[in-house]
DNA sequence: CTGAAAGCGCTTACAG
DNA sequence: CTGAAAGCGCTTACAG
């Protein structure tokens, strides 16, 4: 049950080098020999051990995805794209989940130092300029998704523009008191989207009003949850002067907001952010992020870099798209 | 940038064995020595390489999750539970995604033979009795989630009972023509749920009618999608005699079904299956599967087995719970 | 096309 | 508490 390359070599009457060659698709093996080796291997159920191969070859054929939260719609979609691409290429996928509470950079550095993979896909990992620079020194293929740093290939969506577009679409409909249902204030997407929101207001000459920003304290998924949206909307509907309309920082929060409005019996137009598959089915207007495409493309970009460290760094920035549905009618 | 245990040993003035001991938490190292080693390691940014450790120790501290589809609500929730548990334990998580089209058993066998991990969590992997038996021979810790085979620890939910409960709840309300919005007929959960559905009918003396089973052909996520539900419900609403009520095979399909009813302008009570987080927010009655708990508990069970191969095999079967909300009012 | 041999970077008895 | 040395299961020049 635990045969090694030596067992196969002995049984097939060849050297271990030859067995190794057979399993490495080397073409310098005669068909006869190859067949003999394969037959024996098949019979005893032999496969090269991943760790031994990794150590000896200093390669691993593994791509590692590094993310803060796995159970999250955005990540799930991006990952779908990653898989689609990987399936074509024959790499193995590994996922490393960094925990929010601890020293983020330390965790990221750790996983790289351990050399688990040949290439890394960082999804929604936000570091400081200084820290990216340090990572750069490891000289390992890394592609960033949902983040931007000029030293690495990256694939992202313009959050500022997306929030701007969402807010503007509401303002253009004539609403003045447009609220923003945010999540954890310190999170990167919220910070960016707040900028876009303010920009749209400024353009219309509407003064920014702090009280129209409803943010949550929950650390769980940074507040991008149904519950977060529900609670935020409840607060909003209890304000002395209820907003005219609302820009929600994510579709999943909008789902909660919709319920809150129903429960309270008051209604206002809302627009979400992401365009998860579900949104079409609940008639939610939103800002589409091409999540699947991002995963797909980022993976391609990473693999290209793994094959050629010298290629020029590419920054891909998708423009978010306004999707109009019934929630803003 | 690529220091090994030798570099650290030399710089710290000790042997490589000592360096190794420091990184393996062995307590037979003096505090002075330990500090010296740690200081040097910190300075040069050293971490043991995963592959070399794995090969030398024949252990890997890695748990691998094997699944058919990653971007799927059920899996996402289960994985959330897995992570919660793993975080407490300090194992690394790897995910292996088997593709639907190919020879499933071959893929599963391959990943085990490569010895990527010390323990495996199989989620929604359905094999034949015969194949499970073969896997058993590898003598590797495996825990099954959403599947049952007496040779391995398993954590599952009684699908037959769940479907029975759902269908019965509709029949008890007085509906006679209760349809089932299924997905890919050949999928395991559908087969089981169909049994439960029939059982409930039989109990009430209602003859089973093939035309009330609406199944899809889509391979994508086995048809457990919003679109699948939407299309199924459209079909149903176009039948000459529209059913009185409908049991949907998953919440996500129910979301699609809800939209279909709205679009067509006809309505019938429906009940879903899963109780994904979302369902509470759209008022969907459903059958709750404790997905997070299943992941959590399965991980615990797996780790216990990894630590003690001799422990008795445990089969945990959760009873699904009926959650009553407005969609069946 | 094939083999002998060194080496990948660790761990772990075995001695002391 | 510490070190010398063998071994984990492969890959890969180097020779032939």
Q: Can you tell me about this structure?
A:
2 copies of one chain form a homodimer. With 329 residues, chain A is α/β, with parallel strands linked by helices. Chain A has 2 domains: 5-157 and 291-318, Response regulator (Rossmann fold, 3-Layer(aba) Sandwich); 159-289 and 323-328, 3-Layer(aba) Sandwich (Rossmann fold). Helix content of chain A is 46%, strand content 15%. The first copy, chain A, has 13 helices and 12 strands. The first copy, chain A, has helices at residues 5-12, 16-23, 31-44, 50-57, 73-89, 104-113, 129-136, 159-172, 188-203, 226-237, 251-264, 279-282, 291-307; strands spanning 62-67, 92-97, 119-123, 142-145, 153-157, 178-181, 213-214, 245-248, 270-271, 286-288, 315-318, 321-323. In chain A, the strands form 3 sheets. A 6-stranded parallel β-sheet of chain A has the order 2-1-3-4-5-11, with helices on both faces. In chain A, strands 7-6-8-9 form a 4-stranded parallel β-sheet, sandwiched between helices. In chain A, strand 8, helix 11 (251-264) and strand 9 (270-271) form a beta-alpha-beta unit. In chain A, helix 1 (5-12) packs across helix 3, helix 8 packs across helix 9 (188-203) and helix 10 (226-237) crosses helix 11 (251-264). Chain A starts with a helix and ends in a 6-residue tail after the last strand. Chain A binds a DNA duplex (16 and 16 nucleotides) through helix 2 and helix 4.
